[in-house]
Amino acid sequence: MKKVLVVEDEQLIADLLQKKLIKEGYYAFAAGDGEAALQQIREERPDIVLLDIVLPRMNGFEVLAELRKDEELRKIPVIIISNSGQPAEIEKAREAGVRDWLIKTEFDPQEVLEKVRRQVGPPQ
């Protein structure tokens, strides 16, 4: 079963994404801040990470920087979830190795599911 880590400090969004992914057959779990996310990535080795940029204790770009330092962890695909669709922020994320991008105000759970499938395939 494919593992998906949802890193999101807005509980409502984290719950929504987690429930949708679980319903579709993925093993989904969440972290509410950047430090917790790094710890879970190191322990659980998810197949993909959905990562918010604005997080307490360590922002999404700091989490990405830490992942990129590790030979194994840098292989994990990351999809950014953000309130901003600013080209400069998207470019910075792409340079950090981000695979895809979602803007919170514009996505629906089905779109998230499709992007996850595109990166890691079906849940099994």
From TrEMBL:
Protein name (database record): Response regulatory domain-containing protein
SMART domains: REC
One annotated GO molecular function: DNA binding
Residues making up the signal peptide according to the UniProt record: none
Cited InterPro entries: Bact_response_regulator (IPR050595), CheY-like_superfamily (IPR011006), Sig_transdc_resp-reg_receiver (IPR001789)
Residues found modified as 4-aspartylphosphate: 52
CDD domains, A to Z: REC_OmpR
One Pfam family hit: Response_reg
Every Response regulatory domain range: 3-119
Native source species: Candidatus Wildermuthbacteria bacterium RIFCSPLOWO2_02_FULL_47_9c
Record keyword Hydrolase present: no
